[in-house]
Design brief:
By secondary structure, the chain is mostly helical. 78% of the residues lie in helices and 0% in strands. It folds into four domains: 110 residues, Tetratricopeptide repeat domain (Serine Threonine Protein Phosphatase 5, Tetratricopeptide repeat), CATH 1.25.40; 114 residues, Tetratricopeptide repeat domain (Serine Threonine Protein Phosphatase 5, Tetratricopeptide repeat); 86 residues, Serine Threonine Protein Phosphatase 5, Tetratricopeptide repeat, CATH 1.25.40; 63 residues, Tetratricopeptide repeat domain (Serine Threonine Protein Phosphatase 5, Tetratricopeptide repeat), CATH 1.25.40.10. It is elongated, with a radius of gyration of 27 Å.
């Protein structure tokens, strides 16, 4: 079951009764709905369909009856019938959010993506609705954009959903899919999936798949990359730690050149040492200031950038280090690298304004005007959504 379907069904289950069983008008309709609910919960969809149809026969203007009937017909893959019924429900009460959500979902199943997006958007932008409902709508808009292979647009919509409701499971799940399958941000994908597993309470099958397949697979992939680093198999962490302590002492004495040598030794001894890689990057920056020529300084800065990127690979959650590295890449004129690092930083911390600003600036430098505009709009929401 797709997460797009899941959240709509969850919304209907929680709040369909609020749409007014009184609209059904007769005890016969209420009894039919109750029997239909029991059958639906047992996944006896054909019986549920008959019960809900009988409820609609008792109460032709009953919105709840129609929503439930449309929902079960969607489950039975009778999409055209579901579409006709939900349109009747929307006509009876154009403001009823549950029928609007289900109608948008059915449009998505019918591959009427523009219609689905427009319907979800009208809900997402409706300030009278709760943040939770709006988050669900933004997340569903993201699913529509994913279907159309519009990855950046989908990413922004999922991040926007989390601005409105940080506990929205579909947004976490689909961001994880994007970061794993499109962007190649394995560590961020792993984080999204781990959060999804903790939050999702209504889709045990998907939780099981993520827990047993996605998360272990990403952990194995990340660990494999580390083992493939040159020298990782023969690392000497004790020697590295000793040299790091020596380097730190030399930094305190402002003996930066000696500290650089110690950090070089520490990183050579253990290429999986984040403190060694980070310290080496910082010392190359110091060395860039010390050398007399700009050309030599840029050589040092390029070495610093490499060490920064090594450190980021070892600790993918180091947002502040990413921002330093991206700024350095910009100074060296490496716009593509700067964009990539800013984008990774935003994956780690979607509300970090420096990371978003960096993505916007580098997108503009690359001539990607539409992309820059997309993230400017997202930044505006980061500043205003509370």
């Amino acid at each position: 079951m797709s997460s797009l379907r899941l959240f709509v069904l969850k919304r209907v289950a929680h709040s369909a009764l609020l749409l007014g069983l009184a609209g059904c008008g007769f005890s016969g309709a209420e009894d039919a709905i109750k029997a239909g609910d029991e059958a639906y919960n047992l996944r006896d969809l054909l019986r549920a369909e008959k019960c809900y149809q009988q409820a609609c026969d008792f109460a032709p203007d009953g919105i709840t009856c129609k929503i439930k009937l449309a929902k079960v017909k969607l489950d039975l893959a009778k999409i055209g019938e579901a579409d006709s019924i939900i349109k009747e429900a929307v006509a009876l009460d154009p403001e009823a959010v549950d029928s609007r959500l289900l109608g948008a979902q059915i449009a998505w199943y019918m591959k009427s993506y523009d219609e689905a997006f427009k319907a979800f958007s009208s809900i997402a932008e409706d300030t009278s609705l709760s943040k939770e409902i709006r988050a669900e709508a933004y997340s569903s808009m993201g699913v529509v954009e994913m279907t159309k292979n519009r990855s950046d647009e989908a990413r922004v919509l999922f991040m926007t959903a989390l601005l409105y409701d940080y506990r929205n499971p579909p947004a976490w799940y689909h961001l994880g899919c994007l970061y794993r399958d499109v962007y190649g941000y394995d560590a961020s994908a792993l984080e999204q999936f781990e959060v999804f597993v903790r939050l999702e309470k209504n889709d045990p099958h998907r939780v099981l798949k993520v827990s047993r397949e996605f998360i272990p697979g990403l952990k194995d992939k990340i660990n494999l990359k580390l083992t493939e680093i040159n020298g990782a198999s023969s690392r000497d962490s004790a020697k590295s730690a000793t040299l790091i302590r020596k380097a730190e002492s030399e930094v305190l004495k402002k003996n930066f050149r000696d500290a650089l040598t110690s950090y070089e030794g520490a990183y050579a001894a253990d290429p999986l040492s984040y403190p060694a890689a980070k310290g080496l990057a910082e010392m190359w920056i110091k060395e860039a200031i010390r050398v007399p020529s700009r050309r030599d300084g840029d050589v040092c800065r390029r070495k610093a950038l490499k060490s920064y990127r090594d450190a980021i690979m070892l600790r993918p959650s180091a947002t502040s280090l990413m921002l330093e590295a991206a700024s350095l890449a910009l100074r060296l004129g490496d716009t593509m690298t700067a964009f990539e690092i800013y984008s990774r930083a935003m994956a780690v911390n979607p509300t970090n304004r420096s990371a978003i600003d960096g993505v916007i600036k580098t997108a503009e430098l690359k001539g990607k005007v539409a992309l820059a505009k997309l993230y400017k709009e997202y930044l505006a929401k980061v500043k205003t959504v509370r």
